[in-house]
Amino acid sequence: MSIEVDGADSFNVENEFGANGFGLIISNCKIQDDPSLLDFPSEILLKIISFLDANGIKSMISVNKALSEYISENKIWKSICKNKWNSSPVFKKKRMVSSWKEYYNKKLSLTKNQNGLCWIEISPGGDKPSPRYQSSSDVIGKYIYFIGGQEKSTKRFDDIYRFDTDTYRFEKIKVGNCQPPKFSRHASAVVGNKIFMHGGYDGLKLHFDLCVFDSVTNYWYYPMSKGDVPRSRTNHAAASIDEFFYIFGGIYSNTSSGHDLVFLNDLYRLDTHTMTWKHVQAKGDIPIARCGHKLFEFYDKLLLFGGGSGPSWENKFNDIYIYDPKTNYWKKAQTKGDIPVSTFTVSYKVGNFLLVFGGQSMEDSTLTNDLYMLDTFNMEWTKIESDSPPIPRDMACGSVIDNTLYLFGGYLGVPTDSLCALDLSKRFTDNDIVSINPIN
Question: Closest Cα partner for 99 from 75, 68, 83?
């Protein structure tokens, strides 16, 4: 095939290009018909296109509309992502990614400068919760359920509020049977239509174990469980995978040694069908004991972020650990980039990205209001620019519905009842790299 590049002399592709220069040649060329590029076998044509970046693809389809049918091929976008960000899946070496183009669009829309992201403060209707921190927040359908929390050490709440993300209205739930305890610093996760919670403290003397809220019946109950029942604790983290409810870490007060705080690094799994606990004796890189961390499910694995330990936070962590239930193995991830926060952050799972807002600085007790993103494909941290960020805080609640981040409450020297949102969905749509397809 003969091509002409920017008016230069024609030359033979087979003899003249190298892999590194292939994308530049193709994206700047004028295709001649001796023979047509479309005469190549489809597998060769896909290989050629895979050397292009996104701008090269734009240029290519503007020259030859017939090539547009190839640009939706997943393998092309996988190559583009790998070339741009070295984005290769970490969780499973051979994990199938349903849409590398979607991954490209989302990451580009979040990481580029002047991305147009802007936090808004919501003035909700209905019965709004009072200022508080260390509540739990869980998503079921279009609703976010806020349970418990505290205004100060000796004032904790036994209420449940439901926020409708369509109408922006709060509703205080009338619990059908027994009342929740006045507690905070518990850990929670959703299984089906139920919110499973473990731990927490009333600020005086009572610690709590397993409790469940049924969002269909609005019933609260304390189920009987068996097996390796974990001890009561606070400031731990929970996540669910299918019917299994996991908790990790946290702290408890050792009354036999003068109420010294004991930091934990144990992992427990509850089978919510049989209500049987198992103390998971995992192998590998076991995380250091901590509290104030976060735990998420990513691709049937657990991802652990951050936390700290010590009476005065002598130890702070901004590390990432991954637990694989199939192999019963912890692995400490090798991350790129930096995130200068550690404890009591507000964290969100958005697709294959972990977004982290606020929390306490790694260096001191300073509260932050920056937004960072971890790409779980290549384990790279990136700071995300956004306008009008909420006031710096920690110990707030964070939830995601339809690519919108919701932030409620928290501690900023005093408790707050502010409700903020950051809508990512419009940016994801606006930055669809193929939306200019001339065929459409």
Answer: 75
